[in-house]
What we know:
2 copies of one chain form a homodimer.
Chain A lengths: L6 E6 L13 H18 L4 H6 L2 E12 L8 E11 L4 E8 L5 E13 L43 E4 L13 H9 L4 H6 L2 E8 L8 E10 L2 E8 L4 E9 L1
Antiparallel strand pairs in A: 1-3, 2-5, 2-7, 3-4, 4-5, 6-8, 7-10, 8-9, 9-10
Amino acid sequence: MSIDKVGSFGFVAEPFHVDFTGRLTMSVLGNHLLNCAGFHAADRGFGMATLNDYHYTWVLSRLAIELERMPRQYEKFTIQTWVENVYRLFTDRNYAILDEQGNPLGYARSIWAMISMETRKPTDLLSLHGGSIVDYICQDKECPIDRPGKIKVSDEHPVGEYRAQYSDIDINGHVNSIKYIEHILDLFPMEMFKTKQIKRFEMAYSAESYYGDTLSFYRDEVKTDEYDIEVKKNAGDIVCRSKVIFI
Amino acid sequence: MSIDKVGSFGFVAEPFHVDFTGRLTMSVLGNHLLNCAGFHAADRGFGMATLNDYHYTWVLSRLAIELERMPRQYEKFTIQTWVENVYRLFTDRNYAILDEQGNPLGYARSIWAMISMETRKPTDLLSLHGGSIVDYICQDKECPIDRPGKIKVSDEHPVGEYRAQYSDIDINGHVNSIKYIEHILDLFPMEMFKTKQIKRFEMAYSAESYYGDTLSFYRDEVKTDEYDIEVKKNAGDIVCRSKVIFI
């Protein structure tokens, strides 16, 4: 295994980043994972800053996180990240979340596309920088969690509604990927987090939403403690879907 | 000036921590300031972890931030922090926010009390650890911004309402100090942040609020671009007040 294909980044669970149980929140973990992807890609010439010069940008399509447990307040932890596969239009990036002793707390999988900032259309990853992105593929590191799966919601009555505000909006003018995680988990009552923890969390991003958009949240309990969630904007397009499995 | 009285911590403005203008959000800056206070106090034996053993905890009473400009996405910046004064029941902790070249981007002032975790009553700072906290006072470092001032709201019609949810609540079971900043700034329309920036921001914390509490936001425009805000819970007690000055 070529270790330099794996990026490694240290963190500590800060007081305002843990929930009432004292464990890191899923949205903060998601933020750290996306930052690690950014750092790791930047070090290899595929970061946002470099890409922007060529008028390309990375877009997160799927994210799946599966955990034994979340880091606790003040606990130090490490996130490792590596590229598992590169296809023409998508790349699979994986993560391991490790405790201070290097034991896995959990794993994550993400799927990214690269789009042109002008046309917003996906571009061919294999043609970029003479195809050098494939040099960073690392297939000998294990990520023992399922790939992102199908999420389907049939309920037609929203369980929640939210109007996108100033603090939801990122530099691109979109509701940021992390804020959806927060709003989705806020659909669940406190009791849920008191008695259970999240075993697996998935996001599938389909469309952008903007300042002032009304987001409606639909939810099916697929089986006990497993929920599929769909977010629509302005009673129309699907913005994203999520799966939350508690244990 | 004894430099070891001043703590110094490095940061970078992360993509999900900047707003649609590409500048660090006030709530993220507030979070960093409070973390720096925590790190700095912990290094000197007055951190939360140590205090909790003695059943004491720090409580933030006031925060005032004044800025030339906010760090921009991916910009590196440094936060310095030091203790300016220690009184029997309060301590003044100041901050400088510096750019990569060490030029000030802004300053902040905070006022803290220490309370007993059992009685929730303030304790005498000067009697703790044999009064050794005064050894950390640093009065030869300048903090050229006004102290937190008076905030008074007379309007009786709320401009916003919000029900505290899972993601608002910290390890103590309270709405966390940083989330109030987010909710207060969400009272302003996007136009405000498009054309102006925040010159000065103040918070005054009076009472705790909890999961399920309805927070009502009252606002006076004291003068052009200067707003006083008051947050009440369940149409009763004042939870906190804030002043926002745009330029």
